[in-house]
Amino acid sequence: MKKNKRKIETSKILLLVSDVMATAVLIGTVVAVFVLQDATPLAYLIPAVFGLAATSHGFYYWKAKAENLNKWGQGDKVKMKEEEDPTQWTG
User: Fold this and answer.
1) Which residues lie below 8 Å from residue 20, measured CB to CB, with a gap of 6+?
2) What is the pLDDT of residues 8-49, one digit of tens each?
3) 1 in helix, strand or coil?
4) Where do the H-state alpha helices sit in 72-87?
5) What gap in Å lies between CA 61 and CA 66, rounded to an integer?
6) Mapping DSSP to helix (H, G, I), strand (E, B) and coil, where does residue 80 land?
7) Which residues, other chains included, contact 78 with Cβ-Cβ below 8 Å and sequence gap of 6+?
8) pTM for the full predicted model
9) What is residue 72's predicted lDDT score, i.e. its pLDDT?
């Protein structure tokens, strides 16, 4: 009897990598601040790595939302809205 191995989706792997990287940089930065007695790394490293993590999470949630809309049969409504005439946009 063979078990079905579920392959982890690439987007989940990338999300995990960004979270691990954010955690590692956070810990490394905190250690560096205490060792060097300088808070300069906080101004550069923390926003950069958490910006990456926020972008990764935003993409993942956007992708999951699109997949769920298609799964529930509501994807056509979203596509119709996106296909509207761009000359009518006011923004």
Assistant:
1) none
2) 888 888 899 999 999 999 999 999 899 999 988 788 888 899
3) coil
4) 75-82
5) 9
6) helix
7) 66, 69
8) 0.65
9) 76
Here the tokens at position 2 are: 């063979």
Place of tokens 């809205």: 81
Q: Which of 15-19, 38-42, 55-59, 86-90 has the lowest mean pLDDT?
A: 86-90
25 in Cβ contact with 44 (< 8 Å) = no
Q: What is the 3-state secondary structure (H, E, C) of 12-62?
A: HHHHHHHHHHHHHHHHHHHHHHHHHCCCHHHHHHHHHHHHHHHHHHHHHHH
* Position with higher pLDDT, 66 vs 1: 66
**69 token code pair:** 């809309």
